[in-house]
């Protein structure tokens, strides 16, 4: 690991070290909190996953503002993340001096009540390959397949709101994870309608580059002319930007990105940034610059979270910084209905207002963000805002992405509700019994595999630009 010069600064490498529940009492910055507060964190962290690292604690959290600091709220367990009765129950278990198995069992009971599998991920999204159900693949939208490599199912730090939290507490037993790229390649070869693979986690960039290569190279080597983009979902640019700059295999990672872009495909880093502070350090900015130098695109997304970023100014600053660094603001999501969602959720109307006010503060280049968008069971539904139709006050909604491609872009309306925080809390407007997509959604629920089979009727022609770019990269190799 060598020092790296950036502007007039020297970027000094750091060695990654995760800090977890057992370390809470020894994190030096927490000494300013009382014993009771640390105890409360330990209790919450026995139910919800906790992991942080020294870059986050020393560079991203403003300890003078704790406990209200947004990065502290994003990464450290808070008393209010458990409902009062759950917290009281866990407090009693701890106070009784119960053995760790009893603590785990009590935590399990709470975890099962926290909607660990929102939006039908388990039942609806895992496709068949031949006669067998795949492991580590999800196929919800026609053009995009998600792939979960087994070694990439943890993160450099855990977000306290994370919707993938069940796999970090051992609830999922890594059900979604695969050790094989082979299964993915065979699935893609059989599905010409798929143009994009999203490698996701956890955080796939927690893997060493040599391991990530084992998943990416087979995609490049296989005959998959319809595969246009490889996306990598990651929060490493925010939580561990050293991954792209000074880590021992950072250069090798960038070479791998170059191999993808030279193959004529897009390498899109789907970077999860929750707050502008994550983009303000020199190492974070250098990370974006280095990724972009490979020809990769950086697209940025995050949910809107109470206590963290429920503030138009924070979003506007984040988007402005992203655009300035050449990254693309992509999605502002609605917090999902899982885990500690009661602590973070923001009513849809407020989320819409935050996005609108933030968009109004930035230039056109930074207005590429979509949202607020709910990744709900039928698809990604954005809130276009409140309005009046036929004398009724309504909320205008629209699918940005959908299980049934024909639903995309069709405006539909819900009765105005300023407290609703998720699609299933909304009622159709105009006295209608259900939303337009619901009959079809019932059919999909009964047989999700039939819907995926229907996707396959889409045949793609080979795109000449991609073919030309591939030929060029082959000649050069
Ligand atoms: S980085 Fe992503 S997967 Fe990891 S804890 Fe945060 S939201 Fe969850």
TrEMBL record:
<keyword id="KW-0949">S-adenosyl-L-methionine</keyword>
<dbReference type="InterPro" id="IPR058240">
    <property type="entry name" value="rSAM_sf"/>
</dbReference>
<keyword id="KW-0411">Iron-sulfur</keyword>
<dbReference type="InterPro" id="IPR003739">
    <property type="entry name" value="Lys_aminomutase/Glu_NH3_mut"/>
</dbReference>
<dbReference type="GO" id="GO:0003824">
    <property type="term" value="F:catalytic activity"/>
</dbReference>
<dbReference type="InterPro" id="IPR007197">
    <property type="entry name" value="rSAM"/>
</dbReference>
<dbReference type="GO" id="GO:0051539">
    <property type="term" value="F:4 iron, 4 sulfur cluster binding"/>
</dbReference>
<keyword id="KW-0408">Iron</keyword>
<keyword id="KW-0479">Metal-binding</keyword>
<keyword id="KW-0004">4Fe-4S</keyword>
<keyword id="KW-0663">Pyridoxal phosphate</keyword>
<comment type="similarity">
    <text>Belongs to the radical SAM superfamily. KamA family.</text>
</comment>
<dbReference type="GO" id="GO:0046872">
    <property type="term" value="F:metal ion binding"/>
</dbReference>
<dbReference type="InterPro" id="IPR013785">
    <property type="entry name" value="Aldolase_TIM"/>
</dbReference>
<protein>
    <submittedName>
        <fullName>Lysine 2,3-aminomutase</fullName>
    </submittedName>
</protein>
């Amino acid at each position: 690991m060598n020092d790296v010069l950036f502007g007039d600064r020297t970027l000094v490498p750091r060695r990654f070290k995760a800090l977890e529940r057992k370390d809470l009492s020894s994190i030096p910055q927490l000494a300013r909190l009382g014993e009771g507060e640390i105890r409360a964190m330990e209790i919450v962290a026995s139910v919800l996953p906790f992991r942080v690292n020294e870059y986050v604690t020393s560079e991203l959290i403003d300890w003078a503002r704790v406990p209200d600091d947004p990065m502290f709220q994003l990464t450290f367990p808070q008393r209010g993340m458990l409902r009062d009765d759950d917290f009281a129950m866990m407090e009693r278990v701890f106070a009784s001096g119960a053995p760790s198995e009893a603590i785990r069992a009590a935590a399990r009971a709470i975890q099962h009540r926290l909607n660990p599998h929102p939006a039908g991920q388990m039942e609806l999204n895992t496709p068949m390959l031949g006669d067998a159900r795949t492991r580590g693949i999800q196929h919800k939208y026609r053009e995009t397949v998600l792939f979960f490599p087994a070694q990439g199912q943890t993160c450099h730090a855990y977000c306290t709101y994370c919707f993938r939290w069940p796999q970090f507490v051992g609830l999922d037993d890594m059900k979604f994870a695969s050790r094989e790229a082979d299964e993915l390649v065979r699935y893609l070869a059989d599905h010409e309608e798929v143009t994009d693979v999203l490698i996701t986690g956890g955080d796939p960039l927690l893997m060493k580059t040599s391991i990530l290569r084992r998943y990416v190279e087979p995609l490049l080597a296989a005959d998959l002319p319809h595969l246009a983009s490889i996306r990598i979902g990651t929060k490493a640019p925010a939580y561990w930007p050293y991954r792209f700059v000074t880590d021992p295999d950072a250069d090798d990672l960038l070479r791998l990105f170059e191999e993808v872009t030279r193959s004529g495909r897009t390498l899109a880093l789907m970077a999860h940034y929750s707050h502008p502070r994550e983009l303000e350090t020199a190492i974070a900015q250098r990370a974006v610059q280095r990724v972009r130098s490979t020809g990769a695109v950086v697209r940025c997304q995050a949910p809107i979270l109470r206590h963290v970023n429920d503030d138009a100014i924070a979003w506007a600053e984040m988007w402005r910084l992203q655009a300035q660094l050449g990254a693309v603001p992509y999605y502002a999501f609605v917090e999902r209905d899982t885990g500690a969602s009661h602590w973070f959720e923001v009513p849809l109307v407020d989320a819409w207002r935050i996005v609108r006010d933030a968009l109004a503060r930035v230039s056109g280049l930074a207005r590429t963000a979509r949202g607020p968008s709910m990744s709900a069971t039928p698809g990604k539904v954005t809130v276009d805002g409140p309005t009046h139709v036929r004398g009724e006050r309504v909320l205008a909604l629209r699918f940005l992405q959908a299980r049934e491609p024909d639903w995309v872009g069709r405006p539909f309306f819900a009765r105005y509700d300023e407290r609703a925080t998720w699609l299933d809390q909304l009622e159709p407007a105009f006295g209608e019994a259900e939303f337009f997509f619901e009959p079809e959604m019932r059919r999909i629920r009964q047989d999700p595999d039939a819907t995926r089979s229907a996707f396959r009727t889409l045949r793609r022609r080979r795109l000449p630009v991609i073919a030309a770019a591939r030929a060029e990269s082959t000649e050069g190799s």
